[in-house]
Amino acid sequence: MKHLIVNADDFGASRGINRGIIEAHRRGILTSTSLMVLTPFSTDAAKLAKTEPRLSVGWHADLPEALQDSPKRAGEELERQFSRFMELMGVRPTHLDSHHNVHRKPQLLPVFLETAAAQGLPLREHSPVRYFPNFYGQWGGESHPERGRPLCLNCRRPTVSNRTGR
Fold first, then answer.
1. Count of alpha carbons within 13 Å of 107, Cβ hemisphere only?
2. What is the pTM of this model?
3. What SS3 class is residue 71?
4. Which of 54, 92, 131, 148 is deepest in the core (most CB within 10 A)?
């Protein structure tokens, strides 16, 4: 059996994002979110998540740029953020990913892989779950592709989007 996980990052970034994520989950499209743990709205997000027992909540690690050149300091920060997640949620995260996908940086990937392994967490793009990052958002009347063109799920080749003319 196949399952579709629809994940929204940045849970905890603002009250509006928190409300939007919960509304999307309640309406049935969103199955998972990734919680930022060091924002002013993290506590609010955690409280909202606890009202939705079917919502999977992962950890959205947010590494300050100043730490991104030091794997040792980045690892220490990840430990601190994991503890904060546990404090906020009281349960382990369902997965690990990172703000702005900094886990993809060659100097940080080993730190993220080590952290994920130590905590028994799947890391986005490094687990058996197939990840499709392509997304077309719209704001300001314009389409904004996150990355490249959408993939044909069956043929794994770029497709043409009718919405954007690409």
1. 10
2. 0.80
3. helix
4. 92
What are the residue ranges of helices labelled H in 32-161? 42-50, 71-89, 109-119
The b/e string for 72-101 (b: 16+ C-beta within 10 A; e otherwise) is: eebbebbeebbebbeebbeeebbbbbbeee
Q: Which residue has the tokens 């579709």?
A: 4
Q: Is 125 left (phi over 0), alpha (psi -120 to 50) or beta?
A: left
Domain that holds residue 107: 7-131
Low-confidence ranges of the chain (pLDDT < 70): 132-166
Could you read off the pLDDT of 122-136 as tens digits, one per residue? 999 888 787 766 665
97 and 150 in a common domain: no
Q: What CATH code is carried by the domain that includes residue 98? A: 3.20.20.370
* CA dihedral angle for residue 119, residue 20, residue 3, residue 127, rounded to 10 degrees: -30
Q: Does 29 lie in the same domain as 12?
A: yes
Domain total of the chain? 2
